[in-house]
Amino acid sequence: MRPAALLLVVLALAACREDAGPAPLPPNPLDVATQDCTRTGGRMVRAGLSSAMTCIHETTDSGKQCRASVECQGDCLARSGTCAPVRPLFGCNDILMNDGRRATLCRD
Question: Is residue 34 in some structural domain?
Answer without folding.
Answer: yes
